[in-house]
Amino acid sequence: MRFAIYGSGGLGAYYGARLAQAGHEVGFIARGAHLEAIRSNGLKILSPLGDLHLPSPTATSDPAEIGEVDVVIVAVKTWQVPEVARAMRPLLGAGTMVVPFLNGVDAPDNLAAVLGAERVVGGLSKVFSLIEAPGVIRHFNPGAYVEIGELGGGLSARIEALRAAFAGAGAEAHASTDIRSALWKKLLTVSSWAGLGALARSPIGVIRQMPETHALVDRAMDEGIAVGRALGYTIADGFKAELWAFYDALPVEATASMMRDLMAGKPSELDAWNGAVVRFGLQTGVATPVHVFIYHALLPMERRARNA
Predict the structure, then answer these.
(1) 2 DSSP β-pair partners
(2) Do 56 and 156 belong to one domain?
(3) Could you read off the pLDDT tens digit of each residue along the chain, which spans 308 residues?
(4) Do residues 34 and 121 share a domain?
(5) C-alpha 113: how far from its chain's center?
(6) Among 158, 165, 190, 236, fewest CB within 10 Å belongs to which?
(7) Could you give the CA distance from residue 190 to residue 250 in angstroms, rounded to a whole number?
(8) Which residues partner with 53 through β-bridges?
């Protein structure tokens, strides 16, 4: 299959490199020093699943240089989605799938509003990776999870083909018959602790260990689950226990991208994470006091970053 990775950061570049390693044709869309380093020195992946070096991958800032592909993996920040949707048109052929791997629940619909609902499928990933240096991706946990599905539910041949491609590239890949519910649960996976971690300027190891912050995360989970159920999403009774098991298995120093952006004074995905829980809580009439506090307390940092 032919892939374009729109946003070659920690997530996009990692999966793109693994897909290329598995024999797929992959073009990377990047910018700045990261793009120049990939062009000059190739793309390096440092991972507990095995290091990888692509010596001369196709890398550009211009989608037209890649041309039509079978699949566009969107791995940018949520606020960049409208711009990216307009810019990716040279990548789109008659049957091109567009798969957003973004935290939050709005990206598929935002893309569909510009590109057409028939092109867009739902996708999520659980992987801890980041740009360690220009042209170098550090992957931390010994795993990479991908889930994809049709936004309207059910299974399809194109979803199965994409699942097989990711599985062949070493990911734990699943086809979902209810990707909307899966996307909401993924949102809770990050929003239940990342904003609190940014406020406390502390990684997951500290947040889960201290009784005070542990209790706040637990309450944030309850709020998000209640909102999701009010929206009609399927969330099993054991989901909170699964979340805690996931958090407890993370490395002590693990952080989330929103935390890193906020603490570095950069624009973050605050509106798409804690802000989304607050917004949908208001829509459904479900109280979300922990998320409201986190969201409102972080807004000054977010607005300073965006004004800058």
Answers:
(1) 25
(2) yes
(3) 999 999 999 999 999 999 999 999 999 999 999 999 999 999 999 999 999 999 999 999 999 999 999 999 999 998 899 999 999 999 999 999 999 999 889 999 999 999 999 999 999 998 889 999 999 999 987 889 999 999 999 999 999 999 999 999 999 999 999 999 999 999 999 999 999 999 999 999 999 999 999 999 999 999 999 999 999 999 999 999 999 999 998 889 988 889 999 999 999 999 999 999 999 999 999 999 999 999 999 999 999 998 85
(4) yes
(5) 20
(6) 236
(7) 12
(8) 44
Structural domain total, the chain: 2
The last residue of one of the domains, among 177, 199, 215, is: 177
Same domain, 115 and 43: yes
As given in the structure block, the two tokens for residue 155 are: 């299974």
**Is the full-model pTM beyond 0.70?**
yes
Pick from 177, 198, 228: which residue ends a domain? 177
